[in-house]
Amino acid sequence: MVHPQSQQSSFSFSVRNRLEDTTPGAGNGGHRHGRTGTITTPHGEIRTPAFIPVGTKASVKAVLPGAMAELGAQALLANAYHLYLQPGADILDEAGGLGAFMNWPGPTFTDSGGFQVMSLGSGFKKVITMDVPVDADKAGADDRIAVGKERLAHIDDDGVWFKSHLNGDRHRFTPEISMQVQHQLGADIMFAFDELTTLMNSRGYQEESLERTRLWALRCIAEHERLTGERSHRPYQALFGVIQGAQYEDLRRKASADLGAMNFDGFGIGGALEKENLGTILGWCSDELPENKPRHLLGISEPDDLFTGIENGADTFDCVSPTRVARNSAFYTPDGRWNLSNSRFKRDFTPLVEGCDCYTCTHYTRAYIHHLFKAKEMVSATLISIHNERFVVRMVDDARAAIDDGTFYELKDEVLGRYYA
């Protein structure tokens, strides 16, 4: 990315070690795409692979920023769509940016808002699911909406018109507006505006959408470079392109080659895919993307997905799941995910996980937090959220250390064998 010389050293990525592939006859010089490295930003370093907890509205739900630092989070990710609607990107700009606004001193990410515009606009709320009932009378395969919902987003080649899910007000996002919003939000790493498709879309529409996203990427870069020059008093913000293409190998490789040749600082990999194809699709993308730029896998936090992602070249990950499931009393253990509202925990005076070093496990028992959930005390979500975030952050930290010391595959077999036993 071209930016002023004074800012040029503020963002970089360096690879430290590569994951050795012990498979007989393995290509890629005897190595997988997995690697360890360091992303350097104006607000600190991120040792990769790393899990990046999500603070959607400039807040990790139920957890103070100080607690996120104590549990080992290296960076936080917020959402441009939600912050644009409330309180407004200009407010964060006036506050000095996302980190200053939320009292988080470390690196920050913002996504472009595209996922929320498309998913909320289709009536699917938090996620694009492939099995939700659709209104066949109102929508074809390329214009699906959830049953009983109104379409809130309308896409054209220039951008997207959408209605706020908060009050129904009409708004416009284009690549240029997304860049303007994200520059005001001030995160260290931001993402280009892209169109999210689903597995229900036709091959023809996937091709059309991929070209639209490619053209939007060029517009994002142009606007980003303009704003970077205009806002030289602010720290440099890295821009990542987003790779789409659903489950089509040729489309994923084309998107990766096209965006990989552009002046992006790194890349996000997202879009429609089935879980069992995650590693294969990520491998296609990693084959084509530049080795010297970081890759962020969007919306992933399940243990098997994390190990698959790391093995196939992802450097960072984000997901809301650790805090979302915590608010429903679910907590992670090495032996799987359990539900604390179950009556068997009523007299269980042990920690959530024996030996866990998080604040929750070193101070509270299952019985106490079970009581808090039954009594509908808000701190119950806080205590489990702290533990769940620590669990996922530590799992990725352990994988990073295992790549460095050559024991990644042993760790993978041990962790996944026990978690999914």
How would you portray this structure in words?
Helix content is 38%, strand content 18%. With 421 residues, the chain is an alpha/beta fold. The protein has a single domain (5-320), classed as Alpha-Beta Barrel (TIM Barrel), CATH 3.20.20. The strands form four sheets. An eight-stranded parallel β-sheet has the order 4-14-13-12-11-10-6-5. Strands 1-2-3 form a three-stranded antiparallel β-sheet. The longest helix has 28 residues, at 203-230. It is globular, with a radius of gyration of 21 Å. Mean pLDDT is 89; it is low at 2-8, 24-30 and 121-139.
State the gist of this model.
By secondary structure, the protein is an alpha/beta fold. It has helices spanning 65-70, 80-85, 89-95, 98-102, 114-121, 175-185, 203-230, 249-260, 278-288, 303-311, 321-326, 359-363, 366-374, 379-405, 408-419, and strands spanning 12-20, 31-41, 44-48, 50-53, 76-79, 108-111, 153-155, 160-163, 170-173, 189-191, 238-243, 266-269, 295-297, 316-319, 330-333, 336-339.
Keywords:
421 residues; alpha/beta; TIM Barrel; three-stranded antiparallel β-sheet; 15 helices; globular; disordered N terminus
Present the secondary structure layout.
Layout lengths: L11 E9 L10 E11 L2 E5 L1 E4 L11 H6 L5 E4 H6 L3 H7 L2 H5 L5 E4 L2 H8 L31 E3 L4 E4 L6 E4 L1 H11 L3 E3 L11 H28 L7 E6 L5 H12 L5 E4 L8 H11 L6 E3 L5 H9 L4 E4 L1 H6 L3 E4 L2 E4 L19 H5 L2 H9 L4 H27 L2 H12 L2
Parallel strand pairs: 4-14, 5-6, 6-10, 10-11, 11-12, 12-13, 13-14
Antiparallel strand pairs: 1-2, 2-3, 7-8, 8-9, 15-16
Helix pairs in contact: 3-6, 6-7, 7-8, 8-9, 10-14, 13-14, 14-15
